[in-house]
Structure prediction request, 97 residues.
Amino acid sequence: MQGVSDAVEYLSATDQHSLLEKYGYSDRVAFDRALQDGRRELSEAQQVRADTLRANDKRLASLLAACAFAGVAALMGALATYDITATRKQRAASITF
Prediction:
């Protein structure tokens, strides 16, 4: 609609009227109102999308923190298991000699 609005400004009054009627508007005022309504709706949609993205970012940050914690816990568990196994083998070797 912005392109049509820009183009209408370069036309004569009769050409403006015929072009606006072609797109279903009775006059320039109705077209300008529709353009403003479209801009308002777009602004509202952008705000809703920004809020949704912000909420998704928070959820993603929480998920990444949980994954990092699980990774650290798994690594510590693996190291503890390795340490226990190595200690048992050392004890078993020291007992047999």
About this structure: The chain has three helices and no strands. The first helix runs from residue 2 to 9. The two ends are 91 Å apart (CA to CA).
